[in-house]
Specification:
There is one protein chain. The chain has about 425 residues and is α+β, with helices and mostly antiparallel strands. Helices cover about 70% and strands about 15% of the residues. The chain contains 8 helices and 8 strands; from the N terminus they run βββββββααααβαααα. Helix 6 packs across helix 7.
C-alpha cells in the first residue's frame, strides 16, 4: 500500500528510510511514502515571536539597566541546507522547545551587546543596538537552520534612577533653554513685530501705489484691448458679411448656371420638339397644304380675273352714271343760275321789297333757333328781384329782345337799315 502525503506552505515534510541515503525534504508540497519501510515526519515553518527580557545587565560604564526586545524567527524552508540543519537540530521537538532555544540564544547576544555600549548609546541610538543584536544573533541561528526575520528594541529601564536623572538633567537643560529661548523669542518678537509693522506700512503704501498704478495700467490695457476687440469684431462682422455676400453670389451664380443648363436642355428639347413637329407638319400639313395652296392659287387667280372683270364693268357703269349725274347737275345749276339771275333782276327793280321779304321770311327761323335751347331745358328756375316781368312773359320778353336787336346787327353787317326800310312800306 502506498500513501500520498501533502502539506501546506507553512510546513515541511521529512521522509527517511528505504530508497533515501539522506532524509528527503519537501517544503509545502506532496510526496509518496511507503509504509513500514519509510518514515514521514513534519516540521513547522511558522514565524515565532520572541519577547526577550534581559534584567540588570551592566553596561560599558557599569550602570545596570534592563532591556526588552522583540524578535521574529522561523525555520528557513527555502534553503535546503538550513532546512536540513533545522531537521537535525529540532526534529522530534515541539514548537515551544524550538522557541526556548532561539530565545536563549538571542538573550545571550542581547546581554553581550549591552555590555559593549553605554546607557546613553542604547537609549539614544536604538537602531544601532538593534542592528548589532540582529547581526550577531543571525550568525549563530543560521547554523541551527533558523533565520532572524526582524529584531526591535522595545524598552530600556533601570532601578537606580539613572535614566530619570539623565532625563531630569536634560529636562532642566531643556527648560533653561526654553526660558532663554522664550525671553529671546519675546525680545526678537517685539523687534520683529516693530520691523514687521514698519515693513507692513511701507508695503501697504507701496502696495496701494502699485494697486493704483495697476488699476491705471489695467484701465489703459482694457481700453486698448476693447479697441482691439471692437476693431476685430468689426473686421469679423465685415468679413462675415463679405463672405456671406460672396457665398450668396456664388450660390446665385450656381443657380444661374443651373438655370442656364436647364434652359439649354429645355432649348435642346424644344429644338427636338420643333424638328419633330416640323417633320410632323411636313407629313401632315405642308404636303396637303401645298396641294391646297395650288388649288387656292388657281381659284384665287380665277376669282381675281372675275373680280377684275366685274370691277371694270362696275367702273364703266359708275363712269356712265357719273357722267349722267354730272350732266344733271350741270343742267340743274344752269336752271338755278337762270333763276338767280331772274331774282337778281327782280331785286334790281325791287331792292327794298325783296330785302323786306327775305327778312320777314328769315325772322321766324331766327326766332326758332333762339328759342331752341329753351325747348331742350327740363327745368328753369327764375329768381325775381321785384322789378320787371315774371314767368312766361319774362321768357318771351327775352326772346323778343333778341329779335329786336337783330335789325341793328344786320345794319352793322350789311349797312341796310331794316327798320327804316320797313316803315315807308307800312305807310
Amino acid at each position: 500500500m502506498v500513501f500520498f502525503e501533502v502539506c501546506g506552505p507553512n510546513e515541511a515534510m521529512v521522509v527517511s528510510g528505504v530508497c533515501y541515503g539522506k532524509p528527503h525534504l519537501v517544503a509545502g508540497g506532496r510526496v509518496f511514502v511507503w509504509p513500514w519501510i519509510q518514515q514521514l515526519q513534519r516540521l513547522s515553518l511558522n514565524t515565532i515571536t520572541l519577547k526577550i527580557d534581559t534584567q540588570h545587565v551592566y553596561t560599558r560604564l557599569g550602570v545596570p539597566i534592563s532591556v526588552t526586545g522583540i524578535a521574529q524567527v522561523k525555520v528557513q524552508g527555502s534553503n535546503d541546507d538550513m532546512l536540513l540543519a533545522a531537521c537535525q537540530q529540532f526534529m522530534g521537538k515541539s514548537e515551544n522547545e524550538i522557541q526556548m532555544v532561539a530565545m536563549e540564544t538571542l538573550e545571550g547576544h542581547q546581554r553581550a551587546i549591552m555590555g559593549t555600549m553605554t546607557v546613553e548609546e542604547i537609549y539614544q541610538d536604538r537602531k544601532k543596538f538593534s542592528k548589532n543584536v540582529f547581526e550577531v544573533a543571525s550568525s549563530d541561528l543560521v547554523n541551527m537552520g533558523i533565520s532572524v526575520v526582524s529584531y526591535t528594541l522595545k524598552d530600556v529601564r533601570d532601578d537606580q534612577g539613572y535614566l530619570l536623572a539623565l532625563g531630569m538633567a536634560r529636562t532642566a537643560e531643556v527648560k533653561k533653554d526654553a526660558r532663554i529661548g522664550e525671553a529671546e523669542a519675546h525680545r526678537d518678537s517685539g523687534i520683529k513685530e516693530a520691523r514687521a509693522e514698519e515693513q507692513r506700512m511701507a508695503a501697504r503704501f507701496l502696495n496701494d501705489g502699485q494697486i493704483q498704478q495697476a488699476k491705471r495700467d489695467f484701465e489703459l490695457k482694457k481700453a486698448s484691448y476693447d479697441m482691439e476687440v471692437q476693431a476685430k469684431k468689426a473686421d469679423s462682422e465685415l468679413a462675415y458679411d463679405l463672405q456671406a455676400a460672396k457665398t450668396k453670389q456664388r450660390i446665385k451664380e450656381e443657380q444661374m448656371q443651373i438655370k442656364v443648363v436647364e434652359r439649354g436642355q429645355q432649348i435642346q428639347v424644344q429644338e427636338q420638339e420643333i424638328q419633330r413637329k416640323e417633320k410632323e407638319l411636313e407629313a401632315q400639313i405642308k404636303q396637303p397644304a401645298s396641294a391646297e395652296k395650288y388649288k387656292l392659287e388657281t381659284l384665287a387667280d380665277a376669282n381675281m380675273k372675275r373680280v377684275v372683270m366685274e370691277a371694270e364693268a362696275n367702273a364703266e357703269a359708275i363712269q356712265l352714271k357719273g357722267e349722267a349725274e354730272a350732266y344733271a347737275i350741270e343742267q340743274k345749276a344752269k336752271a338755278e343760275a337762270e333763276q338767280m339771275a331772274k331774282k337778281a333782276d327782280a331785286w334790281k327793280d325791287y331792292q327794298d321789297a325783296a330785302m323786306i321779304d327775305m327778312v320777314l321770311d328769315t325772322l321766324p327761323k331766327v326766332a326758332a333757333e333762339v328759342a331752341a335751347p329753351l325747348s331742350q331745358a327740363r327745368k328753369i328756375t327764375m329768381v325775381s328781384t321785384g322789378k320787371g316781368d315774371v314767368g312766361a312773359h319774362k321768357l318771351t320778353g327775352e326772346v323778343m329782345d333778341i329779335m329786336d336787336r337783330l335789325p341793328k346787327l344786320v345794319q352793322t353787317m350789311t349797312g341796310v337799315d331794316i327798320a327804316k326800310a320797313i316803315k315807308p312800306t307800312r305807310v
